[in-house]
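Re: export button greyed out
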Amino acid sequence: MSSASGNILELKNVKVVYDNVILALHDVTLKVPKGKIVALLGGNGAGKSTTLKSISTMLASERGKVTGGSINYDGNAIEKQNPSQMVNMGMVQVLEGRRCFGHLTVEENIISGAYSRKLSRGDINQELEKIYGYFIRLKERRKSQAGFTSGGEQQMIAVARAMMAKPKMLLLDEPSMGLAPQLVAEIFNIVKELNEKEGVSVLLAEQNTNVALKNSDHGYIIETGKVMLEGSAKSLLNDDKVKELYLGISKEGRKNFRDVLKEESKKKSKIKVN
Amino acid sequence: MADQLLFFIEVVVGGLLAGTMYSLVALGFVLIFKASATFNFSQGAMVFFAVLAFVGFMQDFNVPFVLAFFLAVGLMVIVGLCTERLVLRPLMNQSEDTLLMATIGLGYVLEGLAQAMWGVEVRRLDLGIKDFPIPWIADNLKLFISAIDLTAGIVAFGMIIGLSLLFKYTKMGLGLRAVADDAGAASSIGIPLKHIMLLVWSAAGVVALVAGMMWGARAGVQFALVDLALKALPVLIIGGFSSIPGAIIGGLLIGAVEKVLEVYIGPFFGGAIEGWAPYVLAIFFLLYRPEGLFGEKIIRRV
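Workaround output, generated via the alternate export path:
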């Protein structure tokens, strides 16, 4: 059922509007090759979450709408599906801010991820054991109320819960948010492991450019709802503009990407004139 | 002195048993509040609609008791289905106030529908249980406890236990608790909200039917049941809108307190204070502990 190109997900010139007036995405075009991890990078309000939600069809519940372009997942055009249909098609989003069910136990949280699958008790237990193999920490805390677990554990719960739906593709929205570097590394390791062993394709939105690029195959940088730059993770990590804006400290203080590109084009045109 | 103490216990026990019925109705409110974050003003109309249909099946069509009960249950599930389809789904993603207004409208529709189908006169409902003290308890414990109060208490208690088990151990129950905690996250992992809504509204309908039968057996099946169900409002304010244990304890508390106040303080006001005393209690709670005894968050609506 996969598209001929070998991409599990393709977005072409996607445009999103909230409340019929607020333009959140101008023009987003991106691809996620099957079995790869792709990072979607950018600052606050750049449109990372909106992009993910337009794919998982969670936009509707926030009064957002895809008004232009096309989204193609696993050979199907995404138009009128609802989130639960998307989950059945193997696409699960892990929302920003973890969003665990605080009053449920850790184990109940994880089991709830299998809601869309028709599994017997025995099958569920088997799946659980497999998931606990990746999230060893959660096994120790299986009976605790999720609301009382740490931020890192909650992020793991959210990913584990999504994995219980047996997804072909995961959308991760800022898994590093508010976590200590050590925990961020731990979570990215798990994501990589899931990607390698379970063959899950991943599109992850991140502000933590460094960690995200180090753990992915390909990256896209978006700003104000537009893809500004794309490339392999390695080339982006070594790109001067990315280094200056997202990884290191600029000599001339803070700037946004658009300004840098403008300056560059100015320089180029000046050279031409001269 | 011993007699006075015994009388006090009798009043409290009677109040607690009556309170289980408030708990039951409040439970219907809590279910819907948890799942759709709205106060369901049509709950009272659902009580009236359900029990009137039940009595109507029995008296107009001579359907036997058990069959009439299941027909009424089926009817309430259909009401739940229609509510999800015709009211909740078109209003999805609208503000909570919109939903609140919709439940008020739904209440009027149900009231009108019930009376159009089954007529407006007060109907008697005989469950075969008398509103007299149970002789065995009266003889052995010297407590006068009405048979119908005790039955209602046991039935309500049984339903509460049953619903709690359903929520704790079934897949649907897990889904409901997930939706109640975070509907957005629940839908992101593929829990279909419409199934959960259907479950919740059907469960609330069945709860309404049972509550209506108990009240109807005592006071007759009549329009006043709609307002009686609103007694759950102070229960919810005291117990907390989003807490199932809160609804249960709040109901028991209201039941006991209103009876005690009626008996001991009522005479100073010329009696009949149990109609409004719970609301006074609720006002104190609103002033000093607006989230209720067990509420999870501050009440924003109603």
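The longest helix of chain A spans residues 181-198. The button fix ships in the next patch.
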